[in-house]
Batch of 2 targets.
Target 1
Amino acid sequence: MPVLLLITLLVFVLLHAAPGDPASMLLGQENTAADLEQARRRWGLDQPILVQYFKFAAAAATGDLGKSFRFSRPVKEVIAERLPATCELAFFSILIALTLAIPLGVWSGARPNSWIDNVGTSFGLFGISMPNFWLGIMLILVCAGSFHILPSGGRSTYGVAGAPQTGFYFLDSLLDGNWAALKDAMLHVLLPALALGANMVGILMRVTRSSVLDADTEEYVITARAKGLGDRAVLWRHVFSNALIPIVTVAGLELGTLLSGSIIVETVFAWPGIGSLLITGVTSRDYPLVTGVVMMYTVAFVVINLIIDALYAVIDPRIRY
Amino acid sequence: MPSSILESATDAPVATREARRARRLPLKVVVGGAVVAALVIVGVLSPWLAPHDPQYQALEAMLKPPEWLGGAHVLGTDNLGRDILSRIIYGARVSLLVAFAVVLISGAVGILLGAISGYFGGKVDFAIQKLVEVVWAFPALLLAITILAFLGQGLFNLILALVAQRWIQYCRVVRGQTLSLRDRDFVAATRALGAGSPRVIWRHILPNLLQISLVIGTFSMASAIISEASLSFLGLGVPPGIPSWGTMLADSRSYISTAWWLALFPGLAIFVTVLGINLLGDGVRDLLDPRLKRAMKH
């Protein structure tokens, strides 16, 4: 909690001390000084920064993040509207990353210096070296521009999705039984999720490989082999389950990077999530909106780390808190 | 002929070969080092290497394809008729400057604070670690975006925004290492000889932290290049007047379907550079101390 308070104070002071007047930026140049003054008073910008901060913190404690200058709506509402898109994108990126990285890392670690290890290691190195926004542009170029097999941006084709219920298009289309909408949502999320998940594939693959390599020489593995267990059983039941802690730790840490990455990938794919909302807020000096989004990101990051800590005890029963 | 003589005759060249192989630099270091050296050379010599002025706008030659597709410029021209190869060559300067500045400044700040935190402990350690905790809670790019929203675009501001989070990596690792170093015999002996804390830290602790800092620095350089390009792509990093790989990619977005070369080459430059630096980092880590691999991992 103290960390969160310090973070909000830091963000608040940084944004409010920034040069440039949000009132004149949002109202335009043709307004009179009186109009600008009135707007500043209405948004509370005429008060000292610390007074503004304490008012914000007191309201935030009750769940009120203020009103967006740009959208003239409560920040909470604007964020809630965009959040499902970012969650959906993050979910599919993680899914892609785990599906590719873990088998590749386990096979590479189990057969060091084999052809599969060489392929896996190169794949990992490429993944961590690839700028996700460039990968996104290249995917658009090839899959949307040249072959026209996947859409280049957005969350759905106009008119295909039904009325939003939860904001999660996958869930909504399942609830409606609208299979065309489900397929459409899946096609739309594929490219941004691939672009966003590529770095995570690289990092997770490398960690999985080295964890498996470490665990492979442990005595319990030798014992399992001596008992006559098959290679596959030893690998997945003994080596992999014991290599999980570093994998989960890094996956958790990488979620933070993934959240950062979503800001830029959403911009490339015109994905209407909170990442692109943040950029809109920054360019229009929408203080309440930016503070709200930054707070959301940091709270999510802190909560993810807490969940990861709790997961350790599930993965390794020897760990007790 | 006795078998022992035969064995020693065949073993000797094998042993020499193995010794020679062991002395040879790993391939990762050679390839990665070559990429970094190329980046430095291209960055420093860009005014002599670039075939054209990177800012010159030949409006009659807008969006011309690369030479092998019939254009007059090696890698083609952009939407304002500027030579893409020259802009990539000049863009290396920005990447080089940002990468080295970020690594040096964040390294200096992080190593110093980490060493002080670990050596003194107590309230100093508590205060520094609280600061680390606050900054650590920000996803990296998010803090840089917030700082750049405050400071505005600019090369210096960009470096500052990137340093703001990167010093933590050094600080955390160096603090841990210092905690174990401060109780070693050689530190106790130096203190017994009358050396003050600054001297102990400067002469005896810091030199022992250089290896691990070098490894962190290499990886930090790669991430600084990607972050610089990302922020410039978002329009928050390098001002539009300065050619940089990130701004080139941002400019390319409107022409993806008509002029693919605008997006391909600057992105390839970033990718190859980062790949080279990561290879170098991996190689240096393995070369310096295999145990570092484990220390970095935990």
Target 2
Amino acid sequence: MEVLKEEGVDTIFGYPGGVIIDINDELDKTDIRYILVRHEQAAVHAADGYARASGKVGVCLVTSGPGATNTVTGIASAYMDSIPVVVFTGQVPTSLIGNDAFQEVDIVGITRPCTKHNYLVKDPEKLAETVREAFYLARSGRPGPVLVDLPKDVSQSKISFEMPPPPKMNSYSPHTEPHKQQLERAIKLILKAKKPVIFAGGGVILSGAYKELTKFAKKLNIPVTASLMGLGGFPGTDRLWLGMIGMHGTYRANMSTGACDLLVGIGVRFDDRVTGKIDTFAQNAKIIHIDIDPTSIQKNVPITIPIVSDCKIALKKLNKLIEKVDLKEPLKSRPNWLKQIEEWKSTTPLAYEQKDVIKPQFVVEKLYELTKGKAIITTEVGQNQMWAAQYYHFDQPNHFITSGGLGCMGFGFPAAIGAQLACPNKTVIDIAGDGSIQMNIQELIVAVANKLPVKVAILNNRYLGMVRQWQELFYGKRYAATDIEAAPDFVKVAEAYGAVGLRATRPEEVEETIKKALATPKTVFMDFVVEREESVYPMVPAGKAITEMLLA
Amino acid sequence: MTEERKHTISLLVDNESGVLSRVAGLFSGRGFNIESLCVAETLDPALSRITLVTRGNERIIEQINKQLNKLINIRKVIDLTETEFVEREMALIKVRAKEEHRAEILRIVDIFRCKIVDVSPAYYTVEATGSDEKIAAILNLLKQIGIKEIARTGAIALAREAKK
């Protein structure tokens, strides 16, 4: 407990069980806020949302066996998105480990490939030190989830306590400072480029490099695109903003990546959803890649200048280096390049047609308008996630919270609960699908019981829409296993839990519904009955180059 | 894309339970292959040395090295293939020792500087050390006489020190 306080923990998400009664008992005597979830998966997602909204480490506490296995999806999601979370799992007493005891599972073995690191604490004397290490590992370098497995006898033991010093580990020292020569080489390349593009990712958000990136891009007049994880890393309303890149990226973002002569990747990992067909990706460009994790570099695409560094530190140094440079000549060709991009933007913008039935894009646009772009948006996974990414323009970091790498349905609602707890004065909206919201809908009672004014906008098309879209395009419209017409009444569900349920079935009701929800200081479900077969465009079919987009 | 090559990688790791599983899990999870693997404590009981032999093109080997470096319990990763190094394997070979073959077996043992470590009326057990080519050559010869069973280690290796 003392270590937790020292590490600045003020909130823990958890669910009790036999082997952690002692810990919960002690926890209850502290002023750390304990949020009792209704499913352990949601505890991790909530801690993840909390971590992303606050910039702190999210913390969970669950019991052994099923409690531990239920966290695996949440841990895997945090791992893929590099989110600092520490998960404490209970374990059977050390004397019983390996005996197939009641509620025993080898959670350290199970989570080895989806945690940054994990521990089984066998010696009470090592407990405090291990917990400190866990927090240090979770937040430093490329962040990620760390699991600490606590056998019952270890958490029951009474020992004299002394706060261990901040950990120093022989085998772990993240490389945060960029190589000076590499920076100089990068600057040379940047100043020579006629058609450069910056491609920002989650690393920009995680390292807090928003200001540095914005300064860098504006000073050099370079357009910026971002991966799903990088949204908010650069102002989404700036004239240099290209929109998101990739499978559902904007036309101009994908076209300019295809045409650019220099791509500056910052805090990205060139994931397959971004690159499309890998050997055609940015094929005319040299690539500078800044990332704190050396394994990200050269993993998927060949890099001209690799820079292993914390993004913020690297950008700060790059900004310093260009201060002294006369930019008049290097920036001479920029207006032509930006004009070309403007042309792509005006000929092929993001578009939909709002007729009699509510279009999901329209709902997201209205949400954007009525929250003035200032809400924290979480999403589920699928079409809802892509429309949120396309039509809500993020001007600030830490405001878009989504399961990017794992693509985990059921993420958004518990993440919104975590984000709301981290930022009580912000509007927090989960943009959901009717499919996703049903995975973790039980967390409604957690939002209600903790009086959290989380809003959920359900884009209800009675389909598992993203898969349906693939079926429409590539499987002859055979909608196998994706029609979920059999659905609960979401308004009544909300009301049954003590929340507020609202429904809009016609376009003219959308604005009113959102306004009402925003004015209600309670948990609100908004059920938007939308066009059933609306699809997300642009779309790059799997295996195609990102410049080969389907536009409608 | 460069050609696939054999690489011998030497790892200094924390001597803790679970470390080997992290290394093995990394290889299986990311689709890299392990040709052989040897683990034993070093002079410092807190550390173990893992010698592993793998195969891949330059890009895969670069990934393997980086991913290994990323594991928290791994202190040091040395790709010996880039340096001068000595490498040894060992095999215990139980060979059928009929009267008429015994002289031939002893000759082979002598030529390859092996040892006979166990003798029974019907079998000799031969201990052979050397490079994998040498072990393969011995096996090839003894096979013609008749091998009952064998046990082999993977490679162990150390970098050569400077000659001056």
